[in-house]
Amino acid sequence: MEPREKRLVFPFSAIVGQEKAKLALLCVAVNPLIGGVLLKGDKGTGKSTLVRALANVLPEIEVVADCPFNCNPRNPLEMCDSCYERYENGEELPIAKRKMRVVDLPLSVTIDRLVGTVDVERFLKEGKKALQPGILAEANRGVLYIDEVNLLDDYIADSLLDAAAMGWNTIEREGISFRHPARFILVGSMNPEEGELRPQILDRFGLCVEVSAPMNPEERIEIVKRVEEFHEDPISFYKKFESEEKKLTERIVKAREILPKVEISDDLLKLLAETVVNLGIKTNRAEIATIKTAKAIAALNGRRRVSLEDLEKAMELALPHRLRDRPFQKPPRMRPPKPKDGKGHDHKGDHKHEHKKEEKGGKRNQESQSRGTGNLEQNFRSSEAKIPRIESRNFDGGEFRGYRSSRDVSVTVINFPRGVPVSYLPPVNGGIKDVDFYNSLIWAVLNGKKPPIKLDLNDVRVRVRKTKAPTLWVLLLDSSGSMAVQKRISIAKGIAEKLVENGYTKRSKMALIVAKGNQAEIFVPPTKNYWEVLEKIESVPTGGRTPLSSALYNLLLLANRERMKDKSVKVRAFLITDGKANVPLFGKRIKEEITELARALKKREIELTIYDTRGRGINPGLSYVPILERVARAEVHKV
């Protein structure tokens, strides 16, 4: 298989640019205890190519020849239960050499495939309970690669994090109790446009690199030439870079030998600790990952002492993704460390200059917005707002189709291979997709069959699982002129931003509809790029009339479009308004329109929550909130 892999995989040393990403991957190859690498960047920037190319330069490792878990024959602390028992009994373990592997974790992976399950074939033939290893077993002492890691289902991510944190995969199921080492280099790639990564997973990555396409025309031309040459004759292309690939492998092997002898001075340690404290980073993983990376960089360069330059490079890889305490907090600006006697440039003047530029830009933007319409528009910033906790919901799983899920809606599904198993049933209408082999075999035995067992339809049982369904949260922001009174729009924007943060926590898709002027507009179509929604909320100008009917109509259209893609999508809408409306949609009376639209929302099972910005104890005057509350069964909060 090795020649085939070399023909198909683009050589690591042939990749143009991306020096930071290459360095990060080489560092974790030298020292897997750094904790893995996250590659963030737009589509088509070479993230997957980098990781798959890494496989060709990884050195060989010694494994127990007849063990499926790649156990280390020299270290009993890195052996599975079976190998350890043989070692304790004095058996000489057979040794083989294998290349470190890059194992792909598909987004569609099931929990059984990830952690391992009962070996059905052996059970059927011999009647013995045995383990069929999963992906975590294959990845032990290798690289586990997750493309689009930010789209991974939560229940899979949780199991993966447990194994990565402990270094062991423990299996307790169907009467089987077993554990094996799961010490792998975790490498993930993601496109930030598809949504942010959960903080728990983000902190597990020791290093994080922003990957972007080069903007130098010469480099782009060279990339095209190399890719074309590779596609035309991959074998010749690989031979062209074969010596460079071998040098990289030798460099990693030599660096591993040097690594235990690499030292770092107390001055550099103090400098790192002060920098981390000044940046407000709370996790201790920051210093640990930075030191390990700096030592790996020094070892890769054949040195036994960490330099200031090594530390700077390590900090650029290990610190930026840890700068935020909260998901949407603006990170502080990271400056390179300075030695004690270093004279640094004063950035205060630069900061003031930038602030003035920002202020001027904001004024120009506001003026241009005012000139763009016939009405006077203002741009208000958001203010801190409190909103009630948004509870998750449980729904019937009859319409569930299994697309990208959220953490907001739980569904019980039968005969669908995603989610946490809670029970089993005989198969009902439809095909058999999610067989519970263990309980099917138990039923076969109860029906009088003996090994070797042959199952028939009367014996088969399918799993009942608890899983998460996809949700869409639609924010409807009233930004009309009446919302400028007492700066209600500032409170409204604050509520909208809190909702975005809640949506991020629940992993729901978000959309933004703004009601302002003669008709409402979809400012942000359904997305998981929460930063985009926040930026749009902050930049929305205020002024003009109130097209509430148009906003509700756009909500219905948006929900219909999403449900055409996936019938199981649950839509939750959040209307932030003072309840006024003065623009009819179809030329009817506004009250009649809003009543009809409210009926349609209820009929299409769109859950509506209203944040009434007029507050408590204020006479609402002419407000359409009571109609929506009564007809659409909306939940209303006074703010």
From TrEMBL:
Pfam families: AAA_lid_2 (PF17863), Mg_chelatase (PF01078), VWA_2 (PF13519). Residues 367-382 have a biased composition (Polar residues). SMART domains: AAA, VWA. Residues 320-388 are annotated as: Disordered. InterPro entries: AAA+_ATPase, ChlI/MoxR_AAA_lid, Mg-chelatase_DI-like, Mg_chelatse_chII-like_cat_dom, P-loop_NTPase, VWF_A, vWFA_dom_sf. Residues 472-608 form the VWFA domain. It comes from the Archaea. One of its GO terms (molecular function) is ATP binding. Keywords: ATP-binding, Nucleotide-binding. Residues 338-366 have a biased composition (Basic and acidic residues). Belongs to the Mg-chelatase subunits D/I family. PANTHER family: CHELATASE-RELATED, MG-PROTOPORPHYRIN IX CHELATASE. This is VWA domain-containing protein. The lineage of its organism: Archaea, Methanobacteriati, Methanobacteriota, Thermococci, Thermococcales.
